[in-house]
Amino acid sequence: MSIDEEKGAAGGPAPKKRPKRGWIVAGVVAAIIVVAGAGFWVWHEQPSFCNAICHSPMDYYVETYDSGDPNLGVTVHAKAGESCLDCHTAELTTQISEVCAWVSDNYPMTEDGTMLATGKQFASEEFCARAECHGGKSFDEITAGLWGFAGNDEKYNPHSSHQDMALECGDCHKAHENQVLVCNECHDLTLPEGWEAPNVQ
């Protein structure tokens, strides 16, 4: 019989059980993983995450987001506290395909190499004209307020185009470039402040 067993049998104090170190280590490791994961998730929500690894093609997007340039659509979003993922939803399948495209260096760029050539695909009415993004106004309500925009004749409304809806939001509205009044491919309308006329060839 061991000394501890003799003490226990004799009515002495029971031996102290040592805590299992394995459980403590596992708990600490789990806590570190949870904290690191939460920190990563918060960082993942920030524009700086977008170009931390993927410098090309994301540098230009983050630079314009941070630029404060009043002529860029992204500046309005930045001032409103909107981040990239408030518009560009982070779906797992999309992110996996983006990582694969980046790793294989297989993504379409504009001719000058600054931006993805797929940007216009995002700027559809479905993507851009959500009521939660425009003070609760629907596309029709926004359109109703644009007759005679920028001091032009009341018969002109860029959102009520005679092009039979052949235009998408991204034809005029740009997030990371200057806004372009496509109407002026044919017309000579007064441009809204900070907007540009299209390059007509």
UniProtKB/TrEMBL annotation:
The membrane spanning regions, by residue number, are 23-43
- Give the InterPro entries listed for this entry: Multihaem_cyt_sf, NapC/NirT_cytc_sf, Tetrahaem_cytochrome
What subcellular locations does the record give? Answer: Cell envelope
**What highest taxon heads this organism's lineage?**
Bacteria
Q: What is its main location?
A: other
Residue ranges of domain Tetrahaem cytochrome in the record:
76-188
The alphabetized UniProt keywords are: Electron transport, Heme, Iron, Membrane, Metal-binding, Transmembrane, Transmembrane helix, Transport
Q: Pfam families recorded for this chain?
A: Cytochrom_c3_2
Question: Mind listing the GO molecular function terms for this protein?
Answer: metal ion binding
Q: What is this protein's record name? A: Tetrahaem cytochrome domain-containing protein
Tell me the organism's taxonomic lineage.
Answer: Bacteria, Bacillati, Actinomycetota, Coriobacteriia, Eggerthellales
